[in-house]
Design a protein that fits this description.
The protein has helices spanning 15-28, 38-45, 70-76, 81-90, 103-113, 150-168, 189-199, 211-215, 226-252, 256-276, 302-317, 320-331, and strands spanning 2-6, 31-36, 55-59, 96-99, 125-132, 135-140, 175-178, 205-209, 221-223, 284-287, 292-295. It has 340 residues and is α/β, with parallel strands linked by helices. The protein folds into 2 domains: 1-121 and 288-318, 3-Layer(aba) Sandwich (Isopropylmalate Dehydrogenase); 127-279, Isopropylmalate Dehydrogenase (3-Layer(aba) Sandwich).
């Protein structure tokens, strides 16, 4: 498999990007296409033992910053690493594209500029897999669409259910909508309308759930609009970090016995950290475009880049794009109506 990797994506580019690609190449044996500033990429590659690995550098003259506006990147930086990498997918030179860079710019280039939407898809959605109560849960939309419509959420549910089948090996994932109450009719107008539509799709839809039910892993797929999804994810990750910091402070600030106890429980805390570490689960898959695109955190480590690459290859192996196209046509006719 050939995976295009944006070597100019992370905040510390190209250090974690190159290291992650090397790590993924070593673990999977896949061919990595490192896209970006050739001089900087080759200098970084020289720091890693890479004999026998399939690593190729694809030059890109322009670099997209996190502060760049998506519309400006789309029009004014046609030779960016994002454009070059996504074009590799469109032209069949790469099976997938992975970036830890500007989410809005990646979304705009993939959706409006190069790959375009799968026929019938109203709006693409960003889907992530995150561990909750010891099991993975799919969440979408995580920020591709701050303002949404009920029929978009209906399609998010369809695409998210399919993605859970592929990524989680779950043949009948429980789909839920996040609301301020479990009862039917709860929530704002968007959520109420979406509930009615999703109930008619034939999915294993269990209705509304509250945040506490998410933390109890009562659903396998949780659907919301991009604004709420992005706020939910950031709050969830910040809360984990906050309480982890408090625990460390309490365990290390006490007397000798407390510090001894901290040493004894350290292996357990390391295992917990591994279970909830976002770096272990890659990035967000952009569902609904004609190609596999994964977008990760700009602060991601080499391990995060490697995890995102492996997430992309699983989406390719699962024929995600083809199956979304087919599923929209079979589940519910109005879910595939065009909305341009």
């Amino acid at each position: 498999m050939r995976i295009a990797v944006d070597a100019m994506g992370t905040d510390a580019r190209p250090v974690p990007d190159v290291a992650g690609a090397v790590l993924a190449a070593r673990e999977t044996g896949d061919h990595m296409l490192l896209v970006g500033d050739e001089t900087r990429i080759r200098a970084e590659l020289a720091k890693h033992p890479s004999e026998g690995l399939k690593l190729e550098v694809i030059p890109a003259r322009e670099e997209v910053l996190m502060t760049d506006k998506p519309s400006q990147v789309l029009k004014n930086k046609p030779e960016s690493s994002l454009h070059v990498g996504i074009n590799l997918v469109k032209n069949g030179q790469a099976d997938a594209f992975v970036t830890m860079g500007n989410t809005g710019a990646t979304h705009a280039i993939a959706t409006l500029g190069i790959l375009r939407r799968i026929p019938g898809v109203k709006r693409p959605a960003l889907a992530i897999i995150y561990p909750v109560s010891g099991r993975p849960v799919a969440f979408l939309d995580m920020g591709a669409n701050a303002d949404s419509k009920a029929d978009w959420l209906e399609q998010f549910a369809i695409m998210g259910s399919l993605y859970a089948e592929i990524e989680l090996q779950n043949h009948s994932p429980r789909v839920a909508t996040l609301s301020n109450g479990e009862e039917e009719g709860k929530g704002n107008q968007l959520v109420r309308e979406a509930q009615e539509r999703i109930a008619g799709t034939g999915l294993n839809y269990i209705g509304h759930i509250e945040p506490k039910e998410i933390l109890q892993a009562k659903a396998d797929v949780v659907v919301f609009d991009g604004f709420l999804g992005n706020v939910f994810l950031k709050t969830f990750e910040a809360t984990l970090s906050y309480f982890g910091g408090i625990v460390r402070q309490e365990l290390t600030a006490g007397n000798v016995l407390a510090k001894l106890g901290a040493l004894l429980v350290r292996p357990a805390f390391q295992r917990v950290r591994h279970r909830i570490d976002p770096d272990e689960f890659g990035g967000a898959l952009l569902l609904g475009v004609n190609g596999v695109v994964v977008i990760g955190h700009g602060s991601g480590s080499a391990r995060a880049v490697a995890s995102a690459i492996k997430q992309a290859r699983r989406a390719v192996e699962g024929n995600t794009v083809r199956r979304i196209r087919e599923r929209l046509a079979t589940l519910t006719p109005h879910a595939a109506d065009n909305d341009d």
